[in-house]
Amino acid sequence: KASDLIRLLKVLETFVACVIFAFLSNTSLYIDQPALEWCVAVYSICFILAAVAMLMDREEWENRLPISFPVFHLGLNFLLSVLLYIGALVLWPLYQFDEKFGGQPERSRDVSCQHRLTNYVCVWDQRLAVAILTAINLLIYVADLVYWARQVSVGTEDQPGDS
Fold this sequence. Notes:
Blueprint: H1 2-23, H2 34-58, H3 69-97, H4 123-154
Helix pairs in contact: 1-2, 1-4, 2-3, 3-4
């Protein structure tokens, strides 16, 4: 059912963001680097927007919006989430792995990765995990965008709040 799919996508978006936040608990990954701090802001903004969208769906607030719910979601997903995540997908790896921007292109150069502690994720692995999770979340947001673009273009009234 379409409403279950859209709920699943929103849950996935917020879940992946939470995993990203777990890796970002190491503030040395981005502190004092404006481009990377921007990426953290993107993750935070998109997380909040996805959570608000889930709450709006759950509380059936879609009838209180001045525009249709599919148009609202299309704008939310495209103008904010997808475009912001594309920027983060470019900036995060560029500043984490390109030496020209102060990054470390090779795991073997990261001193924290040379220790073989079993319950420890080294800094380079954290950087890589955030880069991969950014790409995964972008794909989820794109799937969400495609769904809502279809809703708007077809003009269907099958909205998540409908049963």
